[in-house]
DNA sequence: CCATTGGCTTGTATCGTTTCAGCAACCGGG
DNA sequence: CCCGGTTGCTGAAACGATACAAGCCAATGG
C-alpha cells in the first residue's frame, strides 16, 4: 500500500543506504544514480515515514504549545507568532488547548511526552505543574513558560508584567475618581489572574483613602463568564455597586459589556470598564474598550526562539526570563464623554 | 537518559513481551508480575515511545485539521467541536493553519503525510487540491472536507449551504429596499467566498429591476482587509456608493465597520452591513452585526465523527455529504432604527 | 607498475515497540 | 500415569529509516 525505502531501492536497483543518501545527503551520490532513485521515488509515490525517522533519530521536529483556550484571540495571536518562528526553522507547531482544566493539561502533557516532542511552550493552568515540567526538562525536552514569569531558573520564560498591568488599569480608574471598583476574573488559581488582581490591589492601596476593590470571581475567562458576572453586579443595590469594573481579560470585558447593557447600566456613564489583552475585537466593541495591551505575537515569537535556541545547544544553555511591559490603551469605555474611536 | 521497555523488563526481571503485555493487555499478566512491572515503570519514570509504537502499528492516533486561519473565531469554534470528539476517542487533534496560502497548505499536507496521520479534516484553500487529497485517500488516510461541499464521492464532507447563506443575506437587504449593494470578500479562489457571492448574485437577479451587486475584492478574510475595503467604499462618490455591504465573513464586516466609521459613514443609517458566520464578537460589535449564522462547533463535531467512523471501518465506507442550513440573524447593523441588542 | 587516494556504494546494526509462535508448568479427568 | 487444556511467560521477528564501517573501482602519484 505505502511504499517504503526498500521498494524504492529495489526499483532503482540500488541499496537501501543509497536511497537514504539521496534523501539526506544528495551530494554524496553520483548524479545519474541520484536521478534513478528520484525517478523511482516519484513513480512509487514514496513518502518518508516520520515515525521511523524519529525513532532512529531519537527526537522529533515538532514543537508543542499548550494554551489555556484556543478560542481566545489573545492566544491565537501568541500561537501565530510561535508558528512563524517554528515553521521558519523547518519544524511543525502543534497546538493543544487545556481549556483551563488541569486534567486536560496533564493528559496533553502525557501524550506530548510520549511523542517525544522537541520542545514545549506552555501557559500552565495552575501552580502544581512544577514537578511535571521538571520531569520533561530532565528528559531533555526544553520547556518555555509563556505569559508567565518563572522563579525557576532551569527553564526560560516569556511574560508580560501582569502586576504592572493591573496597576496601570487600577490607577487609571482611581485617577478618574472611581472609589468602588470591581475586579472580574477567575479562577484565581490562574497566575495571570491573581497577578493582575494583586497589581490592582497594590495600586489602590497606595492610593489610600478607602478605595475599595471588590472581587467578582468567575469560573473561566470567557465571554459567557463575563456576562454572568455582570448580572451579579447589576443585582447589587446602586449604593454598593462598583462604579468601575476591571476585567482580567477582554473576553470577560466584552461579556460584561453585554451583561451590563442588558441589565440597564450604560458604559461608561453608569459604570466604567477596563479589559486586558487588547485583542483585535476590543477596539471594535459596542463601546470601544479601554484595555491593557500585551505584545501578543511577539510573546509567541520570542518564546519559540528561546525554545529553539535551547533545543539546539542540547544541555547547557543560559535560561533567560524575558518580561515585556504592558501598555494601557484608553478608549471610550472609561472616557465618560467623547465619540467612538476605532483604533 | 530515557528508559526503554527493555530496561523496565530487566529491572522487573521479566521479558520484553511481558512488559508490553502489562501495558496493553494487563489481564493477561499474573497480578504479582504485573505489580512488579508497574513498580519498575514508576521507579524508572518510563514513558512509552510513540514513534516506535506507531512504526510498529503502521498508523498513528492523531488526527489533523487544516484551517484557513487560526485567528478566525469561526475556525476556532470548529476546532473545538472536532477536538472534543477526537479526544473523547482517545486521539489527539493537531491544528494547522494554511493562512489562506496554498503553498503553506501543501507544506502542511506534506508533513502530515510523512507523519501518517490517522485522518485529515481540511478546509482547502483553492480548487487545485483534488489530486493531492486523492492521493491521501489512496494511501488510506481518510479525508473529510470541512465547510465545503464536495462533488467527489470518494470522501466525506460537512458543509453549510453557502449559496443559501448568500441568498438570505441579499434578500434581506433587497427587501429593506437597497438597490446598490456591495460584496466585500476574497480571494475569490476560496470557494466559500465564491459561493456566498454567487448566492447573493442569484437572489438579486431573481429580484429583477436593476438591483446591482458590486464586488469589492479583498486579499484575505481579515479585519484589516475589511477596513481597507471600507476605505475604497468611502472613496466613492455618494451616488455610486452602495447603500449596503454584504461581507463574506464577520472579520471583514468588523473591519468594514471600523473603516466606514472612520470614513464618516454611519451604520446602518448611511450604509447597512451584513456579516457571515455570526462569531461571538458579531453581536458585541460597536453596531451589533446582522450576520448569517453557521453551526460552528457542530460542523467540527460532525466532521470528526465521520472521519473517525471512516478510520474504523478501514476501506469500505459509505461517504456522506452533510449540509447544514445557515440562518440569518438580524441585528442593528441593518435595522435602521431600534436600540442596541446584545444577543 | 604498485600504492594510495578519493568517490560511490553496500550491508548491517540499531532505534523501541508489538505480535506471535512456542514452551513450561500445572490442573483435573479418564 | 498420561493427556488435553489452561495460564503465564519468553524470544525473536518485524516495522522503516539512518549511520557507519567496509568494500570496490578508477584515477593519481611516485
From TrEMBL, chains A, B:
Source organism: Catellatospora bangladeshensis
PROSITE patterns to which the protein is assigned, alphabetical: HTH_LACI_1 (PS00356), HTH_LACI_2 (PS50932)
Domain HTH lacI-type: 3-57
Entry keywords, A to Z: DNA-binding, Transcription, Transcription regulation
GO molecular function: DNA-binding transcription factor activity; transcription cis-regulatory region binding
Record-given protein name: LacI family transcriptional regulator
Gene3D superfamilies documented for this protein: 3.40.50.2300, lambda repressor-like DNA-binding domains
Matching PANTHER family: HTH-TYPE TRANSCRIPTIONAL REGULATOR GALS, LACI-RELATED TRANSCRIPTIONAL REPRESSOR
Amino acid at each position: 500500500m505505502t511504499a517504503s525505502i526498500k521498494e524504492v531501492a529495489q526499483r532503482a536497483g540500488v541499496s537501501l543506504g543509497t536511497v537514504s543518501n539521496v534523501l539526506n545527503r544528495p551530494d554524496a551520490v553520483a548524479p545519474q544514480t541520484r536521478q534513478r532513485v528520484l525517478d523511482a521515488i516519484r513513480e512509487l509515490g514514496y513518502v518518508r515515514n516520520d515515525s521511523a525517522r524519529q525513532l532512529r533519530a531519537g527526537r522529533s521536529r515538532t514543537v508543542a504549545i499548550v494554551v489555556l483556550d484556543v478560542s481566545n484571540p489573545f492566544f491565537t495571536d501568541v500561537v501565530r507568532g510561535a508558528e512563524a518562528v517554528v515553521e521558519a526553522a523547518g519544524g511543525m507547531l502543534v497546538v493543544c488547548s487545556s481549556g483551563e482544566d488541569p486534567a486536560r493539561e496533564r493528559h496533553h502533557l502525557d501524550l506530548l511526552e510520549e511523542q517525544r516532542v522537541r520542545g514545549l511552550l506552555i501557559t500552565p493552568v495552575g501552580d502544581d505543574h512544577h514537578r511535571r515540567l521538571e520531569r520533561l526538562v530532565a528528559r531533555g525536552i526544553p520547556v518555555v513558560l509563556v505569559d508567565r514569569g518563572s522563579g525557576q531558573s532551569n527553564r526560560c520564560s516569556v511574560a508580560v508584567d501582569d502586576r504592572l498591568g493591573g496597576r496601570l488599569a487600577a490607577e487609571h480608574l482611581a485617577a478618574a475618581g472611581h472609589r468602588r471598583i470591581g475586579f472580574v476574573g477567575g479562577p484565581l488559581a490562574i497566575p495571570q489572574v491573581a497577578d493582575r488582581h494583586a497589581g490592582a490591589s497594590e495600586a489602590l492601596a497606595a492610593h489610600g483613602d478607602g478605595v475599595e476593590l471588590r472581587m467578582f470571581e468567575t469560573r473561566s475567562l470567557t465571554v459567557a463568564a463575563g456576562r454572568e458576572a455582570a448580572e451579579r453586579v447589576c443585582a447589587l443595590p446602586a449604593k454598593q455597586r462598583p462604579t468601575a469594573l476591571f476585567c482580567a481579560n477582554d473576553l470577560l470585558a466584552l461579556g460584561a459589556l453585554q451583561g451590563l447593557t442588558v441589565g440597564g447600566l450604560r458604559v461608561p456613564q453608569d459604570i466604567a470598564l477596563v479589559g486586558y489583552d487588547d485583542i483585535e475585537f476590543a477596539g471594535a466593541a459596542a463601546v470601544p474598550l479601554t484595555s491593557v495591551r500585551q505584545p501578543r505575537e511577539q510573546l509567541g515569537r520570542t518564546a519559540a526562539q528561546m525554545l529553539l535556541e535551547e533545543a539546539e545547544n542540547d544541555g547547557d544553555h543560559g535560561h533567560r526570563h524575558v518580561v515585556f511591559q504592558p501598555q494601557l490603551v484608553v478608549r471610550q469605555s472609561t472616557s465618560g464623554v467623547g465619540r467612538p474611536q476605532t483604533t
